[in-house]
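Hey everyone, long-time lurker, first post.

I ran two proteins through the pipeline my lab uses and got sequence/structure pairs for each. Pasting them in order. The first:
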Amino acid sequence: MATFSHILKSWGSAGAREHPILLRIQHQGKRRYLSSGISIAKKHWNERRSEVRKDHPQHELLNRRLALQLSEANTAYNELELASEDVSADLIQLALRPKGVEDFWEFTEKWLDMIAARPGAFHYPKQAQSVLRKFERFVGRPLKWDRLSPHLLARFDEYMRSTLSNGPSTRNSDLASVFRTDD
Protein backbone atom coordinates (compact mmCIF):
# COMPACT_ATOMS: atom_id res chain seq x y z
CA MET A 1 0.00 0.00 0.00
CA ALA A 2 1.41 3.37 -1.00
CA THR A 3 1.20 6.39 1.27
CA PHE A 4 1.41 10.01 0.28
CA SER A 5 2.19 13.10 2.33
CA HIS A 6 3.62 16.55 1.88
CA ILE A 7 6.88 17.71 3.41
CA LEU A 8 8.81 20.96 3.37
CA LYS A 9 12.22 20.37 1.78
CA SER A 10 14.50 22.36 4.03
CA TRP A 11 17.59 20.17 3.62
CA GLY A 12 20.27 21.34 1.21
CA SER A 13 18.86 24.84 1.06
CA ALA A 14 20.65 26.62 3.90
CA GLY A 15 19.93 30.32 3.89
CA ALA A 16 17.00 30.05 1.48
CA ARG A 17 14.00 32.20 2.31
CA GLU A 18 11.50 29.83 0.77
CA HIS A 19 11.55 26.05 0.57
CA PRO A 20 9.70 23.77 -1.85
CA ILE A 21 6.85 21.59 -0.66
CA LEU A 22 7.31 18.05 -1.94
CA LEU A 23 4.89 15.18 -2.28
CA ARG A 24 6.49 12.17 -0.57
CA ILE A 25 5.59 8.84 -2.15
CA GLN A 26 6.25 5.79 0.05
CA HIS A 27 5.73 2.31 -1.32
CA GLN A 28 7.35 -1.02 -0.42
CA GLY A 29 10.05 0.63 1.67
CA LYS A 30 11.07 3.12 -1.03
CA ARG A 31 10.57 6.87 -1.01
CA ARG A 32 10.29 9.15 -4.00
CA TYR A 33 9.58 12.86 -4.10
CA LEU A 34 7.73 15.09 -6.51
CA SER A 35 7.46 18.85 -6.47
CA SER A 36 4.10 20.39 -5.64
CA GLY A 37 5.13 23.58 -7.42
CA ILE A 38 4.72 25.52 -4.18
CA SER A 39 7.50 27.14 -2.12
CA ILE A 40 6.96 28.90 1.20
CA ALA A 41 8.93 30.21 4.15
CA LYS A 42 9.59 27.63 6.86
CA LYS A 43 7.58 29.64 9.40
CA HIS A 44 4.42 29.11 7.29
CA TRP A 45 4.64 25.29 7.29
CA ASN A 46 2.78 23.15 9.83
CA GLU A 47 4.88 19.98 9.88
CA ARG A 48 2.53 18.04 12.14
CA ARG A 49 -0.48 18.59 9.87
CA SER A 50 1.51 18.76 6.60
CA GLU A 51 -0.16 21.94 5.48
CA VAL A 52 0.37 25.67 5.06
CA ARG A 53 -0.34 27.57 8.26
CA LYS A 54 -3.25 29.97 8.49
CA ASP A 55 -0.91 32.93 8.93
CA HIS A 56 0.11 32.64 5.24
CA PRO A 57 -1.99 35.05 3.12
CA GLN A 58 -2.84 32.32 0.57
CA HIS A 59 -3.11 29.34 2.90
CA GLU A 60 -6.57 28.27 1.68
CA LEU A 61 -5.59 28.23 -1.99
CA LEU A 62 -2.27 26.50 -1.34
CA ASN A 63 -3.82 23.85 0.91
CA ARG A 64 -6.47 23.16 -1.74
CA ARG A 65 -3.70 22.64 -4.31
CA LEU A 66 -1.91 20.27 -1.94
CA ALA A 67 -5.14 18.35 -1.28
CA LEU A 68 -5.73 18.07 -5.03
CA GLN A 69 -2.23 16.67 -5.52
CA LEU A 70 -2.87 14.07 -2.79
CA SER A 71 -6.12 13.11 -4.49
CA GLU A 72 -4.36 12.79 -7.86
CA ALA A 73 -1.66 10.65 -6.23
CA ASN A 74 -4.23 8.26 -4.75
CA THR A 75 -6.06 8.04 -8.08
CA ALA A 76 -2.83 7.34 -9.98
CA TYR A 77 -1.87 4.66 -7.47
CA ASN A 78 -5.27 2.96 -7.74
CA GLU A 79 -5.06 3.00 -11.56
CA LEU A 80 -1.58 1.46 -11.42
CA GLU A 81 -2.80 -1.23 -9.03
CA LEU A 82 -5.62 -2.13 -11.42
CA ALA A 83 -3.32 -2.21 -14.46
CA SER A 84 -0.40 -4.17 -13.03
CA GLU A 85 0.74 -6.22 -10.07
CA ASP A 86 4.23 -4.70 -10.19
CA VAL A 87 3.60 -1.21 -8.84
CA SER A 88 6.66 0.62 -7.58
CA ALA A 89 7.37 4.02 -6.07
CA ASP A 90 9.13 4.91 -9.34
CA LEU A 91 6.05 4.08 -11.43
CA ILE A 92 3.81 6.07 -9.10
CA GLN A 93 6.17 9.03 -9.35
CA LEU A 94 6.22 8.78 -13.14
CA ALA A 95 2.43 8.59 -13.34
CA LEU A 96 2.27 11.84 -11.37
CA ARG A 97 4.82 13.79 -13.43
CA PRO A 98 3.44 16.92 -15.08
CA LYS A 99 2.41 16.49 -18.68
CA GLY A 100 4.35 19.22 -20.49
CA VAL A 101 4.74 20.30 -24.08
CA GLU A 102 7.70 18.02 -24.73
CA ASP A 103 7.11 14.44 -25.64
CA PHE A 104 8.60 11.57 -23.68
CA TRP A 105 11.49 11.08 -26.12
CA GLU A 106 12.60 14.72 -26.00
CA PHE A 107 12.56 14.54 -22.21
CA THR A 108 14.50 11.27 -22.01
CA GLU A 109 17.17 12.50 -24.44
CA LYS A 110 17.80 15.56 -22.27
CA TRP A 111 17.67 13.45 -19.12
CA LEU A 112 20.15 10.89 -20.49
CA ASP A 113 22.52 13.69 -21.52
CA MET A 114 22.28 15.13 -18.03
CA ILE A 115 23.01 11.89 -16.19
CA ALA A 116 25.72 10.83 -18.65
CA ALA A 117 27.57 14.07 -17.88
CA ARG A 118 27.82 13.20 -14.19
CA PRO A 119 31.18 11.99 -12.92
CA GLY A 120 31.30 8.20 -12.67
CA ALA A 121 28.06 7.72 -14.62
CA PHE A 122 28.76 4.95 -17.10
CA HIS A 123 26.70 1.82 -16.52
CA TYR A 124 23.31 3.35 -15.70
CA PRO A 125 23.03 5.64 -18.78
CA LYS A 126 23.99 2.74 -21.06
CA GLN A 127 21.47 0.42 -19.40
CA ALA A 128 18.74 3.07 -19.63
CA GLN A 129 19.52 3.68 -23.33
CA SER A 130 19.22 -0.03 -24.05
CA VAL A 131 15.86 -0.28 -22.31
CA LEU A 132 14.62 2.92 -23.95
CA ARG A 133 15.41 1.50 -27.40
CA LYS A 134 13.28 -1.53 -26.51
CA PHE A 135 10.49 0.75 -25.31
CA GLU A 136 10.77 2.88 -28.47
CA ARG A 137 10.38 -0.21 -30.68
CA PHE A 138 7.21 -0.99 -28.73
CA VAL A 139 5.53 2.46 -28.71
CA GLY A 140 7.24 4.38 -31.53
CA ARG A 141 7.69 8.13 -31.85
CA PRO A 142 6.39 10.62 -30.90
CA LEU A 143 5.12 9.69 -27.46
CA LYS A 144 3.15 12.47 -25.81
CA TRP A 145 3.01 12.44 -22.02
CA ASP A 146 -0.75 11.86 -21.98
CA ARG A 147 -0.24 8.51 -23.77
CA LEU A 148 2.14 7.35 -21.05
CA SER A 149 -0.17 5.55 -18.66
CA PRO A 150 -0.26 2.57 -16.30
CA HIS A 151 -2.13 0.69 -19.03
CA LEU A 152 0.67 1.36 -21.55
CA LEU A 153 3.29 0.22 -19.04
CA ALA A 154 1.32 -2.97 -18.40
CA ARG A 155 1.16 -3.57 -22.17
CA PHE A 156 4.92 -2.97 -22.43
CA ASP A 157 5.48 -5.47 -19.64
CA GLU A 158 3.35 -8.02 -21.52
CA TYR A 159 5.27 -7.26 -24.76
CA MET A 160 8.56 -7.96 -22.99
CA ARG A 161 7.16 -11.19 -21.56
CA SER A 162 5.46 -12.61 -24.64
CA THR A 163 7.32 -11.15 -27.64
CA LEU A 164 10.83 -10.72 -26.21
CA SER A 165 10.62 -13.70 -23.80
CA ASN A 166 12.01 -11.61 -20.94
CA GLY A 167 11.70 -13.14 -17.49
CA PRO A 168 10.19 -11.36 -14.46
CA SER A 169 13.49 -10.05 -13.09
CA THR A 170 14.50 -8.57 -16.47
CA ARG A 171 11.10 -6.96 -16.92
CA ASN A 172 11.15 -5.47 -13.41
CA SER A 173 14.69 -4.19 -13.89
CA ASP A 174 13.85 -2.72 -17.31
CA LEU A 175 10.72 -0.95 -16.09
CA ALA A 176 12.62 0.50 -13.15
CA SER A 177 15.41 1.67 -15.47
CA VAL A 178 13.16 3.35 -18.00
CA PHE A 179 10.91 5.07 -15.54
CA ARG A 180 13.45 6.05 -12.93
CA THR A 181 13.62 9.74 -13.79
CA ASP A 182 14.31 11.09 -10.31
CA ASP A 183 18.13 11.16 -10.66
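...and the second, right after it:
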Amino acid sequence: MADEQMAVDRSTVPGGERDEAGAEPPGELLSTPVGTPAYAAPARPLDAIDRDILRLLQTDGRASVRSVAERVHVSRANAYARINRLIDDGVIRGFSARVNHERAGHGASAYITLKIVQNSWRTVREQLRKLPGAAHIALVSGDFDVLLLVHTPDNRTLRELVLTRLQSIPEVLSTRTLLVFEETDLDADPQP
Protein backbone atom coordinates (compact mmCIF):
# COMPACT_ATOMS: atom_id res chain seq x y z
CA MET A 1 0.00 0.00 0.00
CA ALA A 2 2.80 2.45 0.84
CA ASP A 3 4.39 1.64 -2.53
CA GLU A 4 1.21 2.78 -4.32
CA GLN A 5 1.66 6.47 -3.57
CA MET A 6 0.08 8.83 -6.08
CA ALA A 7 1.97 11.75 -7.58
CA VAL A 8 0.58 15.00 -6.19
CA ASP A 9 0.42 18.20 -8.22
CA ARG A 10 1.32 20.74 -5.53
CA SER A 11 -0.40 23.51 -7.50
CA THR A 12 -3.73 21.86 -6.64
CA VAL A 13 -2.98 21.35 -2.95
CA PRO A 14 -4.15 24.09 -0.58
CA GLY A 15 -1.13 26.18 0.37
CA GLY A 16 0.84 24.66 -2.50
CA GLU A 17 0.44 27.45 -5.04
CA ARG A 18 3.48 28.36 -7.13
CA ASP A 19 4.69 31.76 -8.26
CA GLU A 20 5.01 32.81 -11.91
CA ALA A 21 8.42 31.07 -12.19
CA GLY A 22 6.94 27.82 -10.88
CA ALA A 23 8.77 27.96 -7.56
CA GLU A 24 6.99 26.81 -4.44
CA PRO A 25 6.49 29.48 -1.79
CA PRO A 26 8.71 29.25 1.25
CA GLY A 27 7.09 27.28 4.02
CA GLU A 28 8.08 26.25 7.48
CA LEU A 29 11.36 24.34 7.46
CA LEU A 30 10.69 20.99 9.10
CA SER A 31 13.03 18.35 10.43
CA THR A 32 12.21 15.57 7.98
CA PRO A 33 13.86 12.32 6.97
CA VAL A 34 16.21 12.36 3.99
CA GLY A 35 14.28 12.17 0.73
CA THR A 36 11.21 14.06 1.94
CA PRO A 37 10.40 17.65 1.09
CA ALA A 38 12.08 20.19 3.38
CA TYR A 39 9.05 22.49 3.23
CA ALA A 40 5.54 21.36 3.98
CA ALA A 41 2.14 22.93 4.40
CA PRO A 42 0.33 22.30 7.66
CA ALA A 43 -1.62 19.04 7.72
CA ARG A 44 -5.27 19.29 6.82
CA PRO A 45 -7.80 18.55 9.57
CA LEU A 46 -8.89 14.93 9.91
CA ASP A 47 -12.53 13.92 9.73
CA ALA A 48 -14.20 10.86 11.26
CA ILE A 49 -13.45 8.70 8.21
CA ASP A 50 -9.74 9.65 8.29
CA ARG A 51 -9.59 8.76 11.99
CA ASP A 52 -11.30 5.41 11.29
CA ILE A 53 -8.77 4.69 8.54
CA LEU A 54 -5.91 5.50 10.90
CA ARG A 55 -7.36 3.25 13.61
CA LEU A 56 -7.73 0.36 11.14
CA LEU A 57 -4.21 0.76 9.75
CA GLN A 58 -2.73 0.99 13.25
CA THR A 59 -4.38 -2.33 14.05
CA ASP A 60 -3.46 -3.93 10.71
CA GLY A 61 -0.95 -2.06 8.57
CA ARG A 62 -1.27 -4.80 5.93
CA ALA A 63 -5.00 -4.23 5.36
CA SER A 64 -5.87 -3.87 1.69
CA VAL A 65 -7.40 -0.68 0.37
CA ARG A 66 -10.51 -2.72 -0.48
CA SER A 67 -10.80 -3.95 3.12
CA VAL A 68 -10.28 -0.45 4.53
CA ALA A 69 -12.88 0.99 2.14
CA GLU A 70 -15.45 -1.63 3.11
CA ARG A 71 -14.88 -1.15 6.82
CA VAL A 72 -15.18 2.67 6.73
CA HIS A 73 -18.01 2.59 4.15
CA VAL A 74 -16.38 4.54 1.31
CA SER A 75 -15.38 3.62 -2.24
CA ARG A 76 -11.97 2.08 -2.92
CA ALA A 77 -10.95 5.21 -4.85
CA ASN A 78 -11.93 7.41 -1.89
CA ALA A 79 -10.04 5.19 0.57
CA TYR A 80 -6.98 5.12 -1.71
CA ALA A 81 -7.01 8.93 -2.06
CA ARG A 82 -7.46 9.42 1.69
CA ILE A 83 -4.63 7.02 2.59
CA ASN A 84 -2.30 8.73 0.13
CA ARG A 85 -3.28 12.17 1.46
CA LEU A 86 -2.53 10.97 4.99
CA ILE A 87 0.87 9.76 3.77
CA ASP A 88 1.58 12.96 1.80
CA ASP A 89 0.57 15.13 4.78
CA GLY A 90 2.94 13.18 7.03
CA VAL A 91 0.13 11.88 9.25
CA ILE A 92 1.08 8.31 8.31
CA ARG A 93 4.86 8.07 8.66
CA GLY A 94 5.16 4.47 7.54
CA PHE A 95 3.96 0.93 8.08
CA SER A 96 5.61 -1.49 10.45
CA ALA A 97 5.23 -4.74 12.36
CA ARG A 98 4.50 -4.95 16.09
CA VAL A 99 7.26 -7.11 17.54
CA ASN A 100 7.20 -9.28 20.64
CA HIS A 101 10.68 -8.25 21.79
CA GLU A 102 11.09 -11.15 24.20
CA ARG A 103 10.34 -13.74 21.50
CA ALA A 104 12.66 -11.82 19.15
CA GLY A 105 15.56 -12.34 21.54
CA HIS A 106 15.38 -9.03 23.40
CA GLY A 107 14.16 -10.12 26.83
CA ALA A 108 15.30 -7.01 28.72
CA SER A 109 13.54 -3.70 28.13
CA ALA A 110 14.00 -0.43 29.98
CA TYR A 111 13.03 3.19 29.94
CA ILE A 112 16.10 5.29 30.59
CA THR A 113 15.82 8.92 31.65
CA LEU A 114 18.67 11.25 30.84
CA LYS A 115 19.63 14.70 32.02
CA ILE A 116 21.62 16.42 29.31
CA VAL A 117 23.62 19.60 28.80
CA GLN A 118 21.34 22.50 27.86
CA ASN A 119 20.93 22.97 24.07
CA SER A 120 22.54 19.61 23.27
CA TRP A 121 19.32 17.77 22.26
CA ARG A 122 20.13 17.43 18.55
CA THR A 123 23.64 16.14 19.23
CA VAL A 124 22.45 13.68 21.88
CA ARG A 125 19.52 12.50 19.71
CA GLU A 126 21.88 11.59 16.85
CA GLN A 127 24.09 9.59 19.21
CA LEU A 128 21.11 7.82 20.78
CA ARG A 129 19.80 6.82 17.33
CA LYS A 130 22.98 4.79 16.84
CA LEU A 131 22.51 2.75 20.02
CA PRO A 132 21.66 -0.92 19.47
CA GLY A 133 18.16 -1.64 20.71
CA ALA A 134 17.01 2.00 20.91
CA ALA A 135 13.28 1.92 20.11
CA HIS A 136 12.00 5.39 21.08
CA ILE A 137 13.61 8.70 21.93
CA ALA A 138 11.70 11.72 23.27
CA LEU A 139 12.66 15.19 24.47
CA VAL A 140 10.46 15.80 27.51
CA SER A 141 9.84 18.35 30.25
CA GLY A 142 10.13 17.71 33.95
CA ASP A 143 12.85 16.30 36.18
CA PHE A 144 14.80 14.88 33.23
CA ASP A 145 15.31 15.90 29.60
CA VAL A 146 15.20 12.73 27.51
CA LEU A 147 13.21 9.50 27.74
CA LEU A 148 14.76 6.56 25.92
CA LEU A 149 13.21 3.11 25.42
CA VAL A 150 15.64 0.28 24.73
CA HIS A 151 15.31 -3.46 24.13
CA THR A 152 18.36 -5.67 24.76
CA PRO A 153 18.95 -9.42 24.83
CA ASP A 154 19.57 -9.50 28.59
CA ASN A 155 20.35 -7.42 31.68
CA ARG A 156 24.11 -7.72 31.13
CA THR A 157 23.79 -6.10 27.70
CA LEU A 158 21.49 -3.45 29.17
CA ARG A 159 24.04 -2.71 31.91
CA GLU A 160 26.79 -2.38 29.29
CA LEU A 161 24.64 -0.05 27.20
CA VAL A 162 23.93 2.25 30.16
CA LEU A 163 27.31 2.23 31.90
CA THR A 164 29.54 2.19 28.84
CA ARG A 165 27.66 3.66 25.88
CA LEU A 166 25.23 6.18 27.41
CA GLN A 167 27.38 7.50 30.20
CA SER A 168 30.30 8.01 27.80
CA ILE A 169 28.32 10.61 25.82
CA PRO A 170 29.82 13.93 27.01
CA GLU A 171 26.48 15.79 26.92
CA VAL A 172 24.77 13.21 29.17
CA LEU A 173 24.94 14.46 32.76
CA SER A 174 23.08 11.58 34.44
CA THR A 175 20.88 8.57 33.73
CA ARG A 176 18.22 6.62 35.57
CA THR A 177 17.12 3.17 34.38
CA LEU A 178 13.59 1.83 34.85
CA LEU A 179 13.28 -1.89 34.03
CA VAL A 180 10.14 -2.98 32.21
CA PHE A 181 8.60 -6.06 33.85
CA GLU A 182 5.60 -6.36 31.54
CA GLU A 183 4.19 -4.30 28.67
CA THR A 184 0.90 -4.10 26.83
CA ASP A 185 0.58 -2.94 23.23
CA LEU A 186 -2.37 -0.54 23.16
CA ASP A 187 -2.56 -0.58 19.34
CA ALA A 188 -3.32 -4.31 19.28
CA ASP A 189 -6.79 -5.74 18.78
CA PRO A 190 -8.91 -5.24 21.90
CA GLN A 191 -9.29 -8.32 24.07
CA PRO A 192 -12.86 -9.56 24.68
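Reply from user beta_strand_b:
Welcome! Quick read of the second one: Helices lie at 48-59, 65-72, 76-88, 121-129, 155-166. DSSP finds five helices and six strands in the chain.
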